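PROTEIN FOLDING TASK:
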Amino acid sequence: MDIHELSAKLVQTTSLTADQWLIRSLLRLLAQGEPVTIDDLANATGRPSDQVRQTLSALPDVERDDQGHIVGYGITLRPTPHHFEVNGQRLYTWCALDTLIFPSLLDLTAHVESPCHGTGIPVRITVEPTGVTGVEPATAVVSIVTPDAHASIRSTFCDQVHFFAFPEAAKGWLDEHPGMTVHPVTEAHQLGQPLVEALLGNRTKGPRLPLHSLASQSIKHR
C-alpha cells in the first residue's frame, strides 16, 4: 500500500467527517491548555448544548477529569511521550502523527519533541502550518499501522505510531508488529494532511479560525 492509499484508508477508518464540526473546535480549545466544558464547545461551535453532549457521547476515547470536563481527544492535557509547544504552551498528543498534523489544524508553528521508541534518543521537529521545516536527527522516521475500522482509534492506531531516530532503530518494533511500516517525517506529515482536510471540512464555507480567535468565544471554568 503506497502513501496515497494509506492516507485514504486513514480518513476512511477514522470517520472524522461526520463529527468534524465538534472535533475541530474541541482540538482548538484543548490547545489552549485548559479542560473543556460542554458550554465551551457550544459557544465555539454555535450548536445547542444537548447536541454537543449527544455527539460527544458517541466519540470513543474522550478523556475527562474528575469534574467531567474534557482533557483529551488527540490533543491531551495528560502527559504522553509525544509533546509539542505552541505559543509557549506545552501540549501532549496520543501519537507521533498527531504532532505533525495538528499544527495545520491550529494554524500555528509547533516545536515537537518525543523520544525515539527504540533508543530513547530525543527526536525534535519544527512543524509550521504549511509543513515540516526542521527534523533532528534528519534520519528520523514514524511508524504507521494500516488501520482497520475499530471503535477505539487510540488503541488500534495511535498507540502504535511512534518516532524512531533512524530506520534501523525501528527494526525490533517492526519484527514484533507485522504489517507495520516506517516513513520519513516529511512523508508522514504528507500522509496526515487528508485527515486535516477532513477535519477542516469544506474551506469554501468560511475561513479557518485561528486558535487565538477561539479564546474570546469560549468560557473557561477553572
Remarks:
- The first helix runs from residue 3 to 14.
